[in-house]
């Protein structure tokens, strides 16, 4: 069971009993960030990848992975970053794959079922995508070096993922830009959209070999094309 700590908002002085969320490790065991009972929460005023993610060790298999930093929304509107004992890590660039390697190369098959996380914000959409990529077998996930026209890019060894949390369906140009960026880095690519895809975007994705997923609000990525079906099944 996840531990709970008392968190006091430094703005309005309200007290909250906070329980750390648990996420599934690739071994199937639940992982929760170790909370610091003596630390003071900090107010989130702006976001960076280094602040939003921490390194946590799985107590079952001893694997270390990056997980979302615990946060709490106070009734006064303040977002609090809950103190933890985990070691913070700056992500380093992933080495490039050899040309011709697709998005399924160099990764281990996932064993446990994916555990969804409800999506209520753009940050949740990015978190779900990062967790899903880890479930697929990709690790050392970081922010992509190159920015795309819409959304947020994530990268791991051999893969670029685009997360589009906007209310507009992803366009043909969005899919093509992701594919071109991936080609320039000799990596595979995959697109995650909250609002789905335009018809011509789906057609070009099939032609270029880009798996497409829709992020539903339950946090379960849904394959849109056969390429996404194959990626989710581990057949790529």
TrEMBL record:
UniProt region (Disordered), positions on chain: 87-110
Protein name in the entry: Restriction endonuclease type IV Mrr domain-containing protein
């Amino acid at each position: 069971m996840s531990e709970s700590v008392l968190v006091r908002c430094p703005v309005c002085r309200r007290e909250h009993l906070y329980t750390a969320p648990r996420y599934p490790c690739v071994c199937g065991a639940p992982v929760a960030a170790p909370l610091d009972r003596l630390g003071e929460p900090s107010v989130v005023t702006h976001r960076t990848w280094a602040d939003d993610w921490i390194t946590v060790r799985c107590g079952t298999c001893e694997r270390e992975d990056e997980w979302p930093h615990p946060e709490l929304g106070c009734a006064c509107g303040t977002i609090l970053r809950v103190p933890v004992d985990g070691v913070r890590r700056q992500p380093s660039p992933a080495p490039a794959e050899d040309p011709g390697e697709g998005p399924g190369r160099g990764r281990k098959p996932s064993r446990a079922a994916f555990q969804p996380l409800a999506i209520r914000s753009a940050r949740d959409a990015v978190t779900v995508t990062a967790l899903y990529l880890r479930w697929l077998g990709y690790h050392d996930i970081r922010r992509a070096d190159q920015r795309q026209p819409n959304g947020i890019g994530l990268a791991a060894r051999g893969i670029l993922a685009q997360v589009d949390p906007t209310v507009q369906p992803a366009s043909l140009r969005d899919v093509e830009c992701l594919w071109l960026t991936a080609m320039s880095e000799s990596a595979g690519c995959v697109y995650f959209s909250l609002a789905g895809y335009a018809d011509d975007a789906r057609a070009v994705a099939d032609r270029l070999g880009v798996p497409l997923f829709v992020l539903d609000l339950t946090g379960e990525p849904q394959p849109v094309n056969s390429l996404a079906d194959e990626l989710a099944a581990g057949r790529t």
